[in-house]
Amino acid sequence: MLTNSFLMLITKIVFPSIGILVKSSFGSNTLSVFESFLELNRYFFFYIIMGIINIWCFRRIDDRRDTLEMITGKSAALSFEALKKRRQTI
Questions:
Q1: Long-range contacts of range 9-12, CB-CB < 8 Å, 24 or more positions apart?
Q2: pLDDT, average across residues 5-34
Q3: Residue 72 half-sphere exposure, CB side, CA atoms within 13 Å?
Q4: Alpha helices in the chain (DSSP H)
Q5: Against a cut of 0.70, is the pTM above it?
Q6: What percent of the chain has pLDDT over 90?
Q7: Where do transmembrane segments lie in this chain (predicted)?
């Protein structure tokens, strides 16, 4: 998920910035270059916020796993397998 958002960040920021440089080097309208730059900044802040939300969510999931490991003394995967076996025997 984090890699996916990183790829989206590259496609939404790097490629439009190359387009802005090409537009400005060929002497197109200054206003359109400025509008493109504003659109670039909008995508930039959006994907930074989305990246922060992704990192925060993954950190919360890891915290829950760590808490489960502290309580049970086992990893979450091992305790889940033990729970499945216990349910099958009942």
A1: 9/47, 9/51, 12/43, 12/44, 12/47
A2: 58
A3: 16
A4: 2-25, 30-72, 76-89
A5: no
A6: 0
A7: 7-28, 40-58
